[in-house]
Every structure is written in C-alpha cells, then in structure tokens.
Amino acid sequence: MDKKIQKIISVAFPIPVQTIFSYLASNNVMVGSRVKVLLGTKETIGVVVPTLEISGVPQPLSASLETKNLKPIIEILDKEPLITKELFDLAVWMHRYYFCSLGEALWGILPKKWQASNRKLKDPFDYPTKSQNFLKPTKYQQLAIDKIKTTVSDHKYQKFLLNGVAGSGKTEVYLHAIKAVLEINKTAIYLVPEIALTPQTLNRLKARFGDIVGVLHSQMTARARFLIWQRIKKGDIKILLGPRSAVFAPFQNLGVIIIDEEHDDSYKQDSKPNYDAREVAQWRAKFHKILLITGTATPSIEMFYHYQKQDDLEIIDMPKKIASNQRVEVTAIDMREELKRKNFSVLSKYLEKKIMEKLIKKEQTLLFLNRRGEATYVFCRECGFVMQCPNCDVSLVYHGDKEKLLCHYCGYSRDNVKVCPNCQSKYIKYFGSAIQKVEKYIRKVFPEAKIARLDRDISAKKDQLFNIYNNFNEGKIDILIGTQIIAKGLDFPNLTLVGVISTDTALNLPDFRANERTFDILLQVIGRAGRRDKKGEAILQTYYPNHYAIESVKRLDYQTFYNQEIAWRDELKYPPFSRLVLITLRGGDEKVVEKESIRLFDCFQVVEGSSNFEIIGPFEPSILKKYNNYRRQILIKMFKHDENLDEILRSILNMRLNKKVKINLMVNPVAML
Questions:
Q1: What is the pTM of this model?
Q2: Parallel, antiparallel, or unpaired for β 451-454 and 254-260?
Q3: Do domains 329-371+433-568 and 579-667 have the same CATH topology?
Q4: Which top CATH class is 5-109?
Q5: Which of 333, 603, 620, 647 counts the most CB atoms within 10 A of its CB?
Q6: What is the pLDDT of residues 564-603, one digit of tens each?
Q7: Which CATH number does the domain 329-371+433-568 belong to among 3.40.50.300, 3.40.50.40, 3.40.50.970, 2.170.150.70?
Q8: Which residue intervals of 211-276 are DSSP H helices?
C-alpha cells in the first residue's frame, strides 16, 4: 500500500441506493472533490462527502468505517473541491425532499465534465451584443425597483412576485435588482425556462453589465459548462443566466436569484434527481438570506396561493404595458361553426382574413400550434390500422421534411409508409394539424409572404434559433409558425397578430393541471402581440369556447380563472392542498410489473387509515407503455407531513423488487402521463 494512504474517505455515487461507500486515500483528497474508484469491478466516478458525524446526515445514509478489505482510490480528479459546504447541504436537502440518493443529488448539482480546461470555448449563443436604448422606468416599474432596492439593504430573505402583464417591463426591474446587488459586491443568478429566451436576455444583460455575465445551458458542451463553473468560482462571472441547472451555480456571495416565467413546467426536471429549480432557488435564497424574485403574467396556482398565505412573500403588481394602455383584443372562433360552413382547413375564415390585413399593413403574425410534426397520426382507411411506436403506447407522428414517422417520447423512427402493413391497402390517411402541415398550408394560402417555422426540431440545429429570432426581429419574416418555444418571453416590436390554431390541445389531457396549462400558454402567447404602440390582436380557434379557462383568457382575467381553479383543486385535494408523490414502476413484462406494483402498494397498509395522506392505485397510466416498458403507477396525496410515510418512501429506494422492474419516485410531478 502506498505510504501516502493515511485515511478513510466516504464516497457517494449517482446510483439509486442509500449507501455511502468507504475507500482509502491520501491526506490531500478533499471533501467535495471527485475521485475515480472501483465500485465492484467497474471504474466509477464518485464525490467525496463528509463523514456521517461531520455532515449530520441521518439514517439510512451510512458509511462503513471498517478498514478491512477497503480499496484505495485510483485517481483524484479535482485539485480543489467542486462542491462547497452550502451545495453539499443543498444536496442533503434534495436527498430528503425528493427521495433520491445523496449521490444522485450531488450529480444533479455538478457540471458534467471529468477534466478541467483553460482553453476558451465558444458558447453557441455568444453573439455580438447590440446596443440598446435605456428608457426611463414607468410608474409601476419604479415602484417595484424602489421596493427591491430597499430590501437589498436589509440583508434578509425576502421573496417577491412581479405579477406583471406581458409587456409590463419585468426584465428592466430584474436588471435594476442585479445592479443593486452588484453595488454591494454580491452576485446574481437569472433563470429562464427555455434556451429560446437566452439570446434576447443575454443581449440585454451584456449590454448593461458587460463581460461579467456568463451563460449556462444544455446546448453548450460539457467541457464549456465545466469552464463556466470554474470561472464562477474564480469570481470572473458575477451574473449567470440559464435554464434550471443554472440554479446550482457555485456562487458563495449571492445577492439575488431571479426566476422569469415562474409558472413554467420547464423548471421541473423529469429525470433523477427530480428537482424543481424554483424550490431549489428558495432553499438557496433562505440559506444566503437574500432576495428571490419571481416574475410572470400567469402565476402558478400553487405559487399564488402561498403568496397570499405567508408573511415573507410579497406581490408587486405591474398591471400596465410599458408603451401602451391598450389591451390586446382577443376573439374566440368556434370551430364547430366553421365545420358547419364546410370549412375544413386549419384556418378559420376570420383568422385568414386578419393575416392578410397584417401582410398588407406590413405587420407581423405569429401562429401558435401546440404540436410538432406534420400529422398527429397516420392510419389506414381500409382496415383502421394506426401506425404506432413499437416501444411506446402512442401513435407515430409524420414528419414530411424527413419523410419519417417519429415517436415524440422515445425517439423511435421509421420510413414513411405508402402501403398499410396490416392489410396492404394503399388508402393511407394523414390525420391532424401538426406544425409542418400548417406550414405547408400557410405557404399555399399566402405565397408572397416570408414564412418561417420554429419548433424544437428547428431550434436544435446549430444557429437556427438565433437566426430565426434575429430575422423576425428585423422584419425579414412576415409569419412565424411555432410551438411552445415561441410563446414565452420573446419581444417583437412589429408583431400585432397572434393566431392560436389549436387552443384546446392541453384541455383534453388526463392531468389535473390541464386547465392551468391551457390558460397559461394562451395568455403567454397572446402577450407576444401589441408590445409597442401598435394595437395587438389575438384569435383563438377553439371547440370549447365556453370553458372557463378559455373565457378567462378572452377577458385576460387571471383572478377569475384562479378563483374557479382553486375551488376545484380544494374539492379534490390537489396541490396546493396536498403534496404529491407519484411512484412509477416499469419493466418489459407487463404481468411482473403489475404484480410488483400490488406488492409495493401493500407496503403502505401498515399506515392505512391515516388522515395525513391518501393513496391511489396501483393504476395504468394514460400511456401504458413507454420506451418499451410497461408501467403501473401509485399516487400519494400528502395533506400533512407524516414521518411514517416518509420512512416507507425512503425504504422503497432500497426495496428488493423483481430485477425486471425499475422504480421511480417523483415529488410534485408536473405531468401525470
């Protein structure tokens, strides 16, 4: 044994087990650093964690301190720790709250790169900064700025909600908040829900603050993300912009965390660890005793409920647009009436007329569709056979630009079919109104218009997102057709018409948040129109014009929608009146999955009858099969904290199920599919 090996260290791994493993190491290995070791017979990367006595981590976390048969580490990967004491404490909280292992929590925090690099790496969104005009704040902006500046000097935790209509200037308030914390030598994290919002926001930040602004997002290489992490620790970056993972930035002198579009589901991660960046941000803000500022035109139901119940949360209303007192004029078109008039196209006659008016006036139109692809499903008119994914219990979507049928869950693809695989008929029908089909129709109806499409297929291509954004902003595109990526936060001065092709898509999903999602996305996309002095118009094509979500959107009335939605949630005890835990079992053998789900459900019988929670299941999810795995689910509604239930949920992580079955616990899932 090497003479330098003098101590026992504890190492956590990104695996779904509670055990922390012990190894032998030299004295120069530090807590928070990554090491390469043998886990069983496989070389694996782990993080050195404090011993049980130092960390205060309760059982069932344990580290065997017996020296017999302990293996020495193979390599120390970090000269300096990547994980600070604060981030380790955060990982412990995530382990407890999200029912993941400590190692999984640590890996959710870490940048994914094995080796450091001093080479400067290009950020795919690092484009030249354009000059900007700094306008004098409006009355409502100034009230918000003054309130925030006063609180910065108090050096205490405070949470603000900027409850501002689209175009009210929330971003300018964020910039003033950042300026205030920089003046006292503190730093800022600025979260946005989508990478699509990064170019515009980054431009504004760099124009105001220069090279101390950094950006972190998934389209950067792992090496580039690691370099940003290093620059933050060195103090070169004082403002970090990015989607949810940026919340883990290793700032030790934080002054403010900003969460734009707070309502957005993108802040919740659907893979281990299943953290919610909004909850993590709140934990960090409380730890540092700093400001947490969230902003949205449509606060989430849970957020708005809690703001009205807690003393350390304050709402700042911003009810007016910056440049105009005009409200967007919203019109709902009953598509049932269009069908009666024998109009079977994707556009109502009224929307088609309005698009033409905008083209004549040289104003821009945004057409929103909540789908990718060209057809929602492909079927045989002879025998009724529907082309389905062999791995998932869903239909394949036709993508005409690739002549492929794709699964939007697992990514399975196959060549398009011209003959039915079931009966060999040639009568193949492409049904639905997905985005490529809409684009094709729009180009046919408006042949002289300059048209572009923006969805995740397009934005994933290098430079495409920036180019389309830039061209639309400069008036080189007349009609932009897009999915959810275009609904959030984008600001185009000449955009005066928003047309929603498929208003009702989310309403029909088997999810208790379906109404809220519909209201949110519609109000957000409507907010893209009329953001300057020109009048904005929005046209909603719907088959449910009298639904309360649609009615509230037509009136731009959040409060009425909230009142009806919160009453419904209260009746059924959905969040915010409960905390949900969704347990999903999956495996290739449906009978084995069903058997194990029943066995797992029986574990909860020891606490049966408690009024603190309700257990539903096991049941088949709406999509029975995903990624070639059959699924069963158990839903727990927790009304009050229950130690016995917590203990059972933790024990599930170490439960010996059939090897053919895997299990996942999701705390407060954003989707129930």
A1: 0.84
A2: unpaired
A3: no
A4: alpha beta
A5: 333
A6: 999 999 999 999 999 999 999 999 999 999 999 999 998 8
A7: 3.40.50.300
A8: 222-234
